[in-house]
Write a structure and sequence with these properties.
- The chain has 145 residues and is of the alpha+beta class.
- It has a single domain, classed as Beta Polymerase, domain 2.
- It is 23% helix and 28% strand.
- It has a five-stranded mixed beta sheet with strand order 1-2-5-4-3.
- The chain is flat and about 50 Å long.
Length: 145
C-alpha cells in the first residue's frame, strides 16, 4: 500500500476531516436511494441546457444520448481538440458542462476511461420545489474513438 498520496507528498496524511460535510452528503445519499427520486424525462429537462453549454468553442461535442430504463441520461461526448487531453483537462470540461445542469446538491464520481456518474438534485426543504433528482452517465471519447 502506498504511503504517499502524490509525487511530492512528504507528510503522508491529511490535516483534517471533512466530517462537517457528511450530513449533506448523507441527505443526498438517502434521497437518491428513494425509488421515485429520479425525475422523469431527463432528455426534456436536461438536454436543452447540455446542448446550449456545448457551444462550438468548447472541447466537447455531443455524439449521442439515450435515456436508460433507470431514468438516467447517458451522454456520449467526443473530444474535439486534435491534442490528446490530460485527465485533468477532460475533468475540467466535464465539470463546466455539468454546471449547466447541476442542482443544489451534486455528487460526481469519475471512473477509469473518462466516464462519470453524476447524481444531482434538490433535497426536500432546500427549495420551494419538492425534492427530486437526476442521474447522468457521461463518457468522453477521443476524436477518433
Amino acid at each position: 500500500m502506498p504511503t504517499r498520496r502524490w509525487d511530492d507528498d512528504v507528510v503522508g496524511r491529511g490535516v483534517g476531516s471533512a466530517a462537517g460535510a457528511t450530513p449533506d452528503l448523507r441527505r443526498l445519499l438517502d434521497a437518491s436511494a428513494a425509488p421515485d427520486w429520479v425525475a422523469e424525462q431527463p432528455d426534456v429537462h436536461l438536454l436543452p441546457a447540455v446542448r446550449e453549454a456545448l457551444d462550438p468553442d468548447q472541447p466537447l461535442r455531443l455524439a449521442s444520448t439515450r435515456v436508460d430504463p433507470d431514468g438516467s441520461l447517458a451522454l456520449d461526448l467526443a473530444w474535439q481538440s486534435t491534442e490528446e487531453p490530460s485527465p485533468r483537462t477532460v475533468r475540467a470540461a466535464v465539470y463546466r458542462l455539468l454546471g449547466s445542469v447541476a442542482e443544489i446538491s451534486t455528487h460526481v464520481q469519475e471512473h477509469p476511461g473518462a466516464e462519470f456518474t453524476v447524481v444531482t438534485g434538490i433535497l426536500d426543504g432546500d427549495s420551494a420545489w419538492r425534492g427530486h433528482g437526476h442521474l447522468l452517465r457521461l463518457r468522453v471519447s477521443s476524436r477518433g474513438g
